[in-house]
């Protein structure tokens, strides 16, 4: 092969090397991270029936004898769809308990829905640290559609955790909300159901809670306040 032909072949021989270098350079270019979709919200238990649920403050005579705690003084004795919020004062160093009962459709019978005991609020957003004897107004808001409660001020912190018990008996056994109570609902209740929380619009997270199948309730220790629901 003459010199002229050899020189014409050299550029062709360099093409694979150039492609390899180009590919390596491209691999160093950062690619935008894939945006992961938020986790789906859990399935919230719904109140049974076609009418909004109604609630009433628990029997004050039962609280001290049952648990030795002072029943909190509520600003409103009856809760309904239009008035589904109760407020009371919690004092650091003084146990306070609020109990709210779920009323039957006729209003003549009731069953426990929520029991909240607060002993040691130590920090309140917008206020700061609480000294022993300081108080904070607590607001409990019940969702009229799902078995969910909002506890405020959101972000309130506790030294000794608050204790909250929520009953899901108001769902009347229909765990998945399909209008039929069957074996699927029993499986959900016994294997999947739990207590979940969300704070500030964040994703829902399941929290440790003790279930009582006899009482159809969950009891959890709360280190702070946020939005809580019985769901799966």
**Uncertain regions spanning at least 5 consecutive residues:** 59-77
Helicity level? 10-25%
**CATH architecture label:** Sandwich
Please tell me the overall pLDDT: 80
Order of helices and strands: HEHEEEEEEEEEEHEEEEE
**How is the main sheet built?**
10 strands, mixed
Care to count the β-strands?
A: 16
Tally of separate domains: 1
| Portion in strands | 35-45%
Count up the helices.
3
> What is the top-level CATH class?
Mainly Beta
Question: What structural class is derived from the secondary structure elements?
Answer: alpha+beta
**How many whole angstroms does the radius of gyration measure?**
29 Å
Shape: globular
- The rounded distance between the terminal residues' Cα atoms is 79 Å
Q: Can you tell me the CATH topology?
A: Chondroitinase Ac, Chain A, domain 3
SSE topology sketch:
Layout (H helix, E strand, L loop, with lengths): L2 H25 L27 E3 L4 H6 L2 E2 L6 E2 L5 E7 L4 E8 L6 E9 L2 E4 L3 E2 L5 E8 L5 E5 L4 E11 L15 H10 L1 E5 L6 E3 L2 E3 L4 E8 L2 E5 L1
Parallel strand pairs: 2-5
Antiparallel strand pairs: 1-3, 1-5, 4-9, 5-6, 6-11, 7-8, 7-11, 9-10, 10-16, 11-15, 12-13, 12-16, 14-15
């Amino acid at each position: 092969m003459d010199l002229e032909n050899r020189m014409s072949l050299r550029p062709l021989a360099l093409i694979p090397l150039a492609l390899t270098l180009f590919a390596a350079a491209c691999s160093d270019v950062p690619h935008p991270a894939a945006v992961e979709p938020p986790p789906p919200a859990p399935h919230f238990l719904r109140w049974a029936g076609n009418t909004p649920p109604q609630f009433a403050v628990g029997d004050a005579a039962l609280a001290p004898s049952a648990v030795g705690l002072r029943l909190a003084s509520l600003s409103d004795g009856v809760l309904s769809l239009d008035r589904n919020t109760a407020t009371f004062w919690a004092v650091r160093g003084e146990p306070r308990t609020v109990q709210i009962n779920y009323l039957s459709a006729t209003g003549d019978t009731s069953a426990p829905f929520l029991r909240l005991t607060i002993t040691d609020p130590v920090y309140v957003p917008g206020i700061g640290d609480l000294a022993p004897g300081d108080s904070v107004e607590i607001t409990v808001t019940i969702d009229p559609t799902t078995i969910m409660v909002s506890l405020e001020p959101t972000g309130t912190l506790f030294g000794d955790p608050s204790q909250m018990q929520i009953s899901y008996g108001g769902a009347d056994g229909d765990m998945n909300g399909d209008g039929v109570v069957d074996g699927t609902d029993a499986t959900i209740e016994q294997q999947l159901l739990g207590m979940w929380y969300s704070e500030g619009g964040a994703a829902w997270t399941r929290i440790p809670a003790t279930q009582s199948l006899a009482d159809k309730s969950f009891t959890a220790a709360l280190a702070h306040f946020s939005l809580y629901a019985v769901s799966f």
